[in-house]
Amino acid sequence: MKLLAAPALAVVVGLLSFPVLFATGDTPRLACAPSGEIDAILATIRTLESGADYTARASGSSASGAYQFTDATWAGWGGYTTAWQAPPYVQDQKAIAQVQAILDANDGDVSAIGVVWFLGHLPRTGPRVGHSPQPRRRQHPHPSSVPAAVDDRLRDAARTHPSRYQRHGWWRGCLPGTPIEVLADGYAYPAPLELFATAPVDAAHHDYPAWDWGLPSGTPIYAVRGGTVTAVPYWPDNWWDHGCGTHPDGCQPCGIGVTIDDDAGNRWNYCHGNAVHVQVGDTVTAGTQILSSGNTGRSSGPHLHLQIRTPDGRLRCPQPLLRSLRHLATGIDPTELPTTGCSY
After folding, report:
1. In angstroms, rounded to a whole number, what is the distance separating the alpha carbons of residues 124 and 164?
2. pLDDT value at position 32?
3. pLDDT higher than 80, residue 73
4. Could you give the domains of the chain?
């Protein structure tokens, strides 16, 4: 990453003013919606790097966006070539992943963030508060990417010790982001309106009634209808990367997902996230963030899979409901949705 105006010392000192994170024993997790502490750290980085300008572009460098990610560090996050082209919430997700990974790799030591953000790694002797590294050493993070290492550790833990992984709450370490406004009849959009406004709401699903929507990884996914969380499947791998096409034993097609039963007995399934923001037993309202989109499970690219099953056990076509939400800002009773005509 590249700092625009503030020396590394200012970053370190600024970040040291925050309380040490994860002193309560929180465990590693996937990129999450910000807690209050991480949100404060992000605000500090944004201010020091760009004056909180999500469209900022550095002169003489590929660094851009609110956090001034170089193109090499950004690495096509969320499907965007360079950081400034991505919406604010996508830039935030990338920064959250970086900050969380630095904390996870350094036992929650918040003082490490400023140094790693500046150098890309910690000096062998650890952070030296009061020492400003030479500008010529400003580089994007070390090739042995901390976020990748943390992500690999999480995946290995989930595969090897799934019960322990869930029992300690590692799988649900993400706090919900800010909820979106609920529509007048108690429904909500499944993702930010600026994206949903151009969603392919009429797209047919392959082989059974459901809906797939290609989205950048990390996009907030909201509950369309409120209810009780009855299942949180958690398989943090991609079906095709792990040979599930020929050896599907142990592979979970939903990947990381959420199942919500509403008060009328309709079941809403959301699949293929990269982080989950609720746990079994939670009562959620429409508009609550339940997932961050991803590419887990039986998925050929980052997307949301939405499936609705009514109390009679039949799968219903979500397309008319989604069309009504987008064009009329009203929902449709799932029992009135068709059971055919939305698959091929």
Report:
1. 33
2. 53
3. yes
4. 8-169 (no CATH), 193-336 (2.70.70.10)
